[in-house]
Amino acid sequence: MIDLHGHYLPAVDDGAADLEASLAMLRHAEKDGITTAVVTPHACNALCKVKSLDRLRLCWEKWRAAIKKSDINIEIVSGAEVYFTSELLPILKENRDLLTINNSSYFLLEFPNDYIYAHSKDFIFKLLTEGFIPIISHAERNSEIQRSPRVLRDLVKAGALCQINAGSLRGDFGNQARSCAYDLIQGNLVHVIASDAHDLEGRKPELAYVTALLPGVAPEKIAMYLEEIPDAIIADQAIPDIGEQLWHHHKHSFFDLFKKRDS
Ligand SMILES: [Fe+2]
Predict the structure, then answer these.
(1) Ligand 1 centre from 124 Cα, in Å?
(2) pTM of the prediction?
(3) What is the pLDDT of residue 252?
(4) Is the pLDDT of residue 172 over 90?
(5) How far is the CA of 160 from the centre of ligand 1 (A)?
(6) Which of 2, 95, 206, 232 is the one with CA 20 to 30 A from 193?
(7) Cα(241)–Cα(188) distance, integer angstroms
(8) Which domain, by its residues, includes 136?
(9) What is the CATH number of the domain that holds 147?
(10) Per-residue pLDDT tens digits for 2-12
(11) What's the domain count of the chain?
(12) How far, in Å, from the CA of 165 to the mean position of ligand 1?
């Protein structure tokens, strides 16, 4: 499995506190069956402790050198979780190596938790014409998308991809996020499921448990979420076709069993 979203880089955000913590997280991921970790520190928002991107670049260099000397067998790929700002395009252009996944066209784009900017669709068009493909991070945690998954459908139709957190399917972020995560899967709007790991207490680097939470989803589809699409993203290739988005919301489905578990 490939974990496309995790805060492993130490002492730069609210993820791994220090080198030891980052190594412990990587070992944990490896044991879980994760072969590649895309390391995505917060950038451009208040959670990023390192305010200058040049400093972030230095932190990467130091950490890479330390990882080389360690016993870690997991493959490390660089990335970032880039917070939406109206000035993002020039920042992305100047720092593609630091902010995109593996210096590719793809990058993780984080929206505020409470809303989606009105001009987001236009912004996505603009990004695409400049050669950047945004992957909306933990879309199921956004309250506007929770109220109406169609908000996300419009962004996906515009060309964005969607990542959801594994923990949301388990209810780690509450019932609304869990319900929304299942709605997005049911609507065929999800491209990637990732851990968004921060530590070994709360948000752990684990993905193996996801399959048991998606009993009605074809194994081939789960492999797309956890391996094939992340692999294409890292290789800067076009992603495999996930098929049409579905909008027939049946009154009852197997997903309801999960959504209503403790509501
Ligand atoms: Fe994150």
Answers:
(1) 20
(2) 0.93
(3) 52
(4) yes
(5) 17
(6) 95
(7) 11
(8) 2-259
(9) 3.20.20.140
(10) 999 999 999 99
(11) 1
(12) 9
